[in-house]
Amino acid sequence: MTVHPSLQTSIDAWTHSVEAITELVNPLVEGEWNRATDCPGWSVRDVVSHVIGLETEMLGDPRPIHALPRDLFHVKDELSRYMEVQVDVRRCHTAPEMTAELEYLVIRRSRQLRNEKRDPQTKVRGPLAGKEVTLEECLRLRAFDVWVHEQDLRRALGKPGNLDSPGAHIARDTFLSGLPMVVAKRAGAPAGSAVVFDITGPLEFMRTVRVDQDGRGTIDGSVSLGPAVTFSMDWETYLRLAAGRVRPEAVGDLVKKDGDQQLADAILRNFALTP
């Protein structure tokens, strides 16, 4: 166990999710690796390649020198181009090559994490194009990212599960931390208003975002009387929207909106928090 308990939650969540991914993909035949996922332009192989690529960078391995094709429609900016290199370089890899690399990566990364002795506030190279973050934030981001991609793979392969796993709790808290910005800044909810989110399923919670007189949003777990909007949906729908995996109109039958419909639609249009 790491000497810093504040890191252990993220390490445990990452381990749980990456082992789940390994179990999901090990039995796949070659054709199943090509199944499309909710990530634009990415197959099952591509999602696994992304996980492998970022984790090898966390280990300190050099990035591959690779020129991307010019016809990748889903590569639209520098961040997506940065992420695509580790993916595209593995598109010719066979199923045995993919599973072998993944298993070896998990062994190496798990060993590194077990021996982690740096202070949680140590600045390290982050997973997003090398931006510096604290070690604690870096491990939280990796646990979040790997769980979200585990769910991408589960939906693509028709094998649901782990919606209440350790990674799910980290993802919930990460998504909720961005809600005040979504409601108050992006959607422009009026000063003095409140918006309630009532989420059911494996992870049940209710949160209220309140906008103060200066237009700043805060979030809490108390009930609001007379909110401007109340959203009701299941946890999987929430995460698909918050992770930008689905357009609001595609899950309209799964999202109940009570109150100001114009504000509700503005919030849903701006709901995605991941790049």
Strand count, sense and barrel status of the largest sheet are: 5 strands, mixed
Please give the share of residues in helix: 40-55%
- The tally of helices reads 9
* CATH C-level of the largest domain: Mainly Alpha
Which percent band covers the strand fraction? 5-15%
Give the assembly state of these chains: single chain
Q: Quote the average pLDDT.
A: 95
Could you please describe the fold and organization of this structure?
The strands form two sheets. A five-stranded mixed beta sheet has the order 5-4-3-6-7. Helix content is 46%, strand content 12%. The mean pLDDT is 95. The chain is globular. The protein has 275 residues and is α+β, with helices and mostly antiparallel strands. 33% of the residues are buried. It folds into two domains: 5-161, dinb family like domain (Four Helix Bundle (Hemerythrin (Met), subunit A)), CATH 1.20.120.450; 178-269, Nonspecific Lipid-transfer Protein, Chain A. Strand 1 (123-125) and strand 2 (132-134) form a beta hairpin. Pfam families: MDMPI_C (PF07398), MDMPI_N (PF11716). Residues 15-154 form the Mycothiol-dependent maleylpyruvate isomerase metal-binding domain. One of its GO terms (molecular function) is isomerase activity. Keywords: Isomerase. This is Maleylpyruvate isomerase family mycothiol-dependent enzyme.
Characterize this entry briefly.
This protein has 275 residues and is of the alpha+beta class.
